[in-house]
Amino acid sequence: MGRWRSIMRELSAEARLHFYARSLSRRTGASMHHVGLYSAFAVIAAIVFGTLSVHPF
Questions:
Q1: For this UniProt entry, which segments traverse the membrane (predicted)?
Q2: Which residues contact 4 (CB under 8 A, 6 or more apart)?
């Protein structure tokens, strides 16, 4: 009976570690999406302000 409990304890620790790794991976993916979105806005703003600063006339 004691061996069964230790096996179940190890499995639950492994499951917790796996869950933590998945949540960490999900957070990293979400932050990468934010970086991509903000950099796209920065490029658009640079293009807009760059074209506004040119005086063709």
A1: 35-54
A2: none
Q: How far is 8 from 42, CA to CA, in rounded Å?
A: 51
**pTM for the full model?**
0.48
Tens of pLDDT, residues 3-51? 766 666 666 777 777 777 777 767 677 788 889 999 999 999 999 888 8
User: What's the chain look like in SS3?
Assistant: CHHHHHHHHHHHHHHHHHHHHHHHHHHHHHHHHHHHHHHHHHHHHHHHHHHHHCCCC
C-alpha to C-alpha distance for 7 and 9, rounded to whole angstroms:
5
